[in-house]
């Protein structure tokens, strides 16, 4: 057993109705406060791994340890993890403030840890931190994608998660909004010291945000390393072509898009 934040040990998963395996003995240790990007093409197993980490999907074999404690069979609510999806998954019938405060109010009532007013005040502070306080009384349908994603992040943060999990949160957003969201997420990591695991299929995004990148190919890990380790010494031809060569193309098209915006 190691003393890292989250230890993922040899996780294997095959969906019943699928003849290929979705995860094949995937192992990685995530350090406290680290930003780990999981980078790979569609279908390589990224979402499956994130759902298993969050406890939303059972695994076939392998172990998960949070702060050295075995959480392999723990319910999602016992894992102190928050998850942010690509599609926001907000409650449409609640205001922004109600969205952010909802789960925290239930929790506060259950453990008698805070009053409703205290929870709402904390929710307002988080909305201010994320630059969306003025939308507190609005409904999700009136917000932009970038604003909805900030609400989703605030709703997760209010529960003070040990680990935040992101499943391609920026991939539905335009270039400028995507870059703003990056800053928001990196600021949260700096301010709260939250450990973050961030799925993306975008090489440039992974390299811009991550402390370490876990490159996946077909249910397996192709390489884990810092951005400079991966660029400096890609582990094999796949990492070189999927990650390093595409990175240059992505950076070129990003600068072009930004140049066109300016
Ligand atoms: N509910 C499911 N039932 C059967 N197969 C699935 C299911 N979800 C995902 N898969 C398969 O598992 C593999 C990994 O999928 P996924 O984890 O969603 O990949 P990624 O997030 O990297 O795109 C793919 O081959 C996908 O088709
Ligand atoms: Mg996915």
| Approximate helicity band | 40-55%
Q: Spell the H/E element sequence.
A: EEEHEEEHHHEHEHEEHH
Low-confidence regions: none
Shape: globular
Coarse structural class: alpha/beta
Task: List the ligand species.
Answer: adenosine-5'-diphosphate, magnesium ion
% residues in beta strands: 15-25%
Give a description of the structure.
This protein is of the alpha/beta class and 262 residues long. Helix content is 41%, strand content 21%. It contains 8 helices and 10 strands. It has helices at residues 46-54, 96-111, 116-129, 145-157, 175-192, 203-209, 227-232, 237-261; strands spanning 6-13, 23-30, 35-39, 61-66, 69-70, 81-84, 163-167, 195-200, 212-217, 220-225. The strands form 2 sheets. The protein has a 6-stranded mixed beta sheet with strand order 6-7-8-3-9-10, sandwiched between helices. Strands 2-1-4-5 form a 4-stranded antiparallel beta sheet, covered by helices on one side. The longest helix is centred in the last third of the chain and has 25 residues, at 237-261. The chain is globular and about 55 Å long. The chain binds adenosine-5'-diphosphate and magnesium ion. Adenosine-5'-diphosphate (ADP) is lined by residues 15, 17-18, 20, 22, 40, 42-48.
